[in-house]
Amino acid sequence: MATCTRNLWKVFAGCQRQLLRVEGLTSQTTPRKIPVRTFAAVKAQKKSKPKVTEEPKEQKKVIDDTDRHKPYGKTAWAPVDDVYILRYYPRTIYDVSEAIDMLKTFQRLDFTPQEQPVYIDLQLNMKLQKKKKVDAFISTVQLPHLFKTEMNRVLVFTEDANQAKVAMENGAALAGGVELIQPILDEEISADFYIAVPEILNKLAPLRNKLRKKFPKNSRGSVGIRIPKMLELFKYGHEYFVESDCYIRTQIATLDMPKEHIFANLRTILLDVCSHRPADMGTCTNPAAVHNLSIELFWAGFLRRSRIGAWACALMPDGPADWSP
């Protein structure tokens, strides 16, 4: 009995060791299932960037010169960069009103006198048919807006006492006949303009060399019988003349005048200049220049500014002049 019990115990002990060995092997080969609690992934919130207002970009200047020949001696027709050498490009053309505005602006920047005179320099096209040309002329025009403070001195040559009286009543500085010849030769008497009636014109021959361009002539409107009308023109008239065969340099206004008044005076002089050349012969002016006393210079029709001077050329929108650099 004791022997059977002992053997049975050995059998149970062996079975227990076998079971424990198999369980250990299986635990090493098969991974344990560990309970894991899962959570939903949190979406990352995008940070809102502050809205930046985009500034409008400056459009790059694009100049199409494909069908245009290159200007002689220049790099191109117009510069692309803001900084460039002036002599490599043709002058820039501006409107006349913008040219006058820029001239006024330069006056304020340079601290020059505001009432300084404004001049115009014209180069005339004097050519006619068959190698002929327009003769140099002197003209007097009545500007729509006066810039002179003093009235011109006008001397009237006439031997008629009634005409002399009418002349003095209409603002003549002096009126008389041949008795005024010797005082004029002796420089005792002088005037800005000399007008005469046709009857006395032959007797004034001794004054021809003395007065020169101021000597009365029909072509200048200083010879006639309508003395009051001539006095009205020459008392407040503005005289200009052609020098060096084809150039005119004359004052047209003062810089303190309104822009409209400067433009009106400029247009009046241009129309009068073009009236001395036949209309069927084309344009009467070549490059023109407008400038003030401090050498702020314009080519009449276009404008360019440098430290030495400001050039402008003023294109008349409806005038007959063709101004080109």
UniProtKB/TrEMBL annotation:
Record carries keyword Membrane: no
Taxonomic superkingdom: Eukaryota
Signal peptide from the UniProt entry: none
GO CC aspect terms: mitochondrial inner membrane; ribonucleoprotein complex; ribosome
Keywords from the UniProt entry: Mitochondrion, Ribonucleoprotein, Ribosomal protein, Transit peptide
Location relative to the cell: Mitochondrion
Region Disordered: start-end pairs: 45-65
Pfam families xrefs: Ribosomal_L1
Ranges annotated as biased composition (Basic and acidic residues): 51-65
Major localization listed first in the record, in broad terms: mitochondrion
Key word Transit peptide present: yes
Similarity comment text for this entry: Belongs to the universal ribosomal protein uL1 family.
Official protein name in the record: Large ribosomal subunit protein uL1m
Organism field: Takifugu bimaculatus
